[in-house]
Amino acid sequence: MTQTDATTAATSVQGPVLVTGGTGKTGRRVVARLRERGVETRAASRSGETPFDWADPTTWQAALDGAAAVYIVPLDTSPSPTPAFVEQAVASGVRRLVLLSARGVDEPGFFGPGYENGGPHGEGERAVRASGVTWTILRPGWFAQNFSEGVFLDGVRDGELALPTGDGRAAFIDADDIADVAVAALTEDGHAGQAYGLSGPRALGIADVLDEIAKVTGKRAVYVPIDAATFRAGLVAQGFPDVEAGLWTDALYPIITSGEAPVLDGVRRALGREPRDFADFARDAAERGAWG
Predict the structure, then answer these.
(1) Dist CA 288 CA 125 (whole Å)
(2) I need a surface site. Which of 97, 203, 212, 226 has the fewest CB within 10 A?
(3) What's the CA angle centered on 258, arms 71 and 207, to 5 degrees?
């Protein structure tokens, strides 16, 4: 798409776009890209410019008023508040929904028992599909950014990353690619009714990931395999609620089993290009000082 085409697509959005999770990994990237296209955008979060709290439905309506489209970054909790939010969004006049879901939602047994029937992401997908408005679902696997600004960052910086992933592999997806697909779905035609499975272009084990990071930082963290119970207990010791610690542990299951190893074609289908490689992500993250 040329810059002229992108601008034309952006101006076809009749009204503001609401981005929930507007300060998060994908949300802030979506906000930046929409604003670069000249799209009126509301960055919604508990502490953001547009107040929004999933746990406080009284904050939803003001954020939704007049919005034409919404990028939904849901809570990973059950029961999910997404169905109630979708109902309110449609009643408020929103005509396009783009939902951040998760890889494997449609595959029985992909996650652990905390994600039966797709878990909270499955609840959200069913609500969006039944909404009666234009919808697109994004199903990314594990983010590459979890190593640079997420749950794995401290381990990488400290030189020892302990995980219960064994020799499992995953095709980690760059959050910049997720944001590009989200913006396309929010501002362009041709994405209605699509569920895009999003991955990077190759599968890596945790040791491979640390090798890629070492190539651009000159410092290598060691991967230490541990069992799931030890990992979960460590999260609880750090202050995670037991339920949340269990969800994080279950979420690692697709890496343990290499369920996230197959490369998906969603980025290519949505954008007409290949996804970014982990090596490119690591280089850019290192240049921004992610690992010190």
Answers:
(1) 35
(2) 226
(3) 95
One-letter identity of residue 82: T
Are the C-beta atoms of residues 262 and 199 closer than 8 Å to each other?
Answer: yes
* Tens digit of each residue's pLDDT, the chain (292 residues): 333 333 334 346 678 999 999 999 999 999 999 999 999 999 999 988 899 999 999 999 999 999 999 999 999 887 899 999 999 999 999 999 999 999 999 998 888 665 667 888 999 999 999 999 999 999 999 999 999 998 899 999 999 999 999 999 999 999 999 999 999 999 999 999 999 999 999 999 999 999 999 999 999 999 999 999 999 998 899 888 898 888 788 889 999 999 999 999 999 999 999 999 999 999 999 999 999 8
In the chain, at which residue ranges do the beta strands (DSSP E only) sit? 17-20, 41-45, 50-51, 69-72, 96-100, 134-140, 160-163, 169-170, 194-198, 204-205, 222-225
Q: Which residues contact 264 (CB under 8 A, 6 or more apart)?
A: 103, 141, 171, 197, 198, 199
Closest by alpha carbon to 135, among 88, 102, 97? 97
Query: Residue 18 has which token pair?
Result: 């609401």
Compute the distance between CA of residue 67 and CA of residue 63 in angstroms, rounded to an integer.
Answer: 8
**Residue whose tokens read 């070492």:** 214
Going by C-alpha positions, the residue among 83, 169, 168 that lies closest to residue 129 is 83
Phi, psi of 240 (to 5 degrees): -70, 135
